[in-house]
Write a structure and sequence with these properties.
single chain; mainly alpha; elongated
Length: about 80
């Protein structure tokens, strides 16, 4: 994998916190920033996927699905009553 050098500007307090965490984790600042950026991107991708999943399931069930759900609930109630 090719590494690319870049320069960023951050507040000193954030830099100091990152420096401390990098020391504790025994990784370079570059590695810490790469890990943080990778985690941020994964989190963002997961949020986007959740939005898409919610959109796919946001519509109301059609008549056939409603009938199947009703029959499934009735059958489940019968099974539960018989077991108890």
């Amino acid at each position: 994998m090719q590494a690319i050098k870049t320069a960023i500007s951050i507040e000193k307090t954030l830099f100091d916190q990152a420096e401390q965490i990098a020391r504790v984790m025994k990784v370079s600042r570059s590695k810490l920033v790469a890990l943080a950026l990778q985690s941020f991107i994964e989190h963002r991708n997961n949020k986007e996927m959740l939005v898409q999943i919610n959109a796919a399931y946001s519509d109301e069930p059609d008549a056939t699905e409603q009938i199947l759900r009703r029959k499934s609930r009735q059958q489940h109630r019968r099974i539960v009553r018989e077991e108890w």
